[in-house]
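Ticket #4471: complex job returned nothing on first submit. Input attached below:
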Amino acid sequence: MTFKINLFGIVLIAVAMVPQLSISQNPIITDVFTADPAPLVYNDTLYLYTSHDTASVASTNYEMKDWLVFSTTDMKKWTNHGPKLSPKTFSWATGDAYAAQCVERDGKFYFYVSTFHKDSEVSKGGAAIGVAVADSPLGPFKDAIGKALIVNEMTTDNPHGWDDIDPTVFVDDNGQAYMYWGNGSCKWVKLKDNMTEVDGEINYLNPENFIEGPWLYKRNDLYYLVYASKGESREAIDYCTSDSPEGPWEYQGVLSDSAPNSFTIHPGIINYKGKDYFFYHNGVLPTGGSYRRSIAADYMYYNEDGTIKKVVQTDQGVDAIAN
Ligand code: FUB
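Support reply: We reran it on our side without changes. The output follows.
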């Protein structure tokens, strides 16, 4: 009898533990600290371009030397392709490798990055946006224009030097490309078809609670501007919608609460093999925190009118896709 109870107890404990051990997927990258997720689907593979946190546990600031690329075909097994670009690739750049996004157009891959300008006469040492180009999603990437695409002096609405960060680029169905970016205020500009020159004036907007990290995309006929927002005490994610990539934007509220153990959170949204995914970062890995962040992914669901249900951040993450 005693033996039977013990065996039953052991089985119960084992059964209780199995689901947690087998389905806990978040964070999705655990071998390095990653942040600022930017997903791209190309040829049935999901590529994830990320920032790379290398600050020590004691550090109170970022240390971000390069941008990493990961890929998956099932949302479970992630291949780490390593660093594919760094500020050193840009002769004019210095300092940290902040948020970036890679987009494909006509078989070329344009990697828009935020970093810092070394020439104080050009940029007062402020943040700048560069663009690198490659023939493959994994590079090799080279500086597409040999100079920054956006420097600090080009935007005048904010006095601080790091307001030109976090580019997101979207190519509309008619071929018109748009770049949104910014910290403190959101800025946008059209890009020429070559993807490497701005086309016209820079525009400014102040979506409700906007802090940084915009992500621009289209679903059906609705455009979405998702961004890191003020939150309660740490950044959260809010969003707006519009009938045009040029606005006006209608504020739709909070999409996601703050991420555990990280002051920042940063959105990356994509539909892959029929499901909608919300990528973000948190600080939950052992020794993690605001400067040692980790990317996670959860499902995103739309309402019939195109608004988005609030994202539930989970430890379990998303299911593996059966290929
Ligand atoms: O990763 C550095 C900065 O933190 C990014 O540029 C912001 O969006 C925030 O995530």
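Residues 132 and 143 are 4 Å apart (CA to CA). Closing as resolved unless it happens again.
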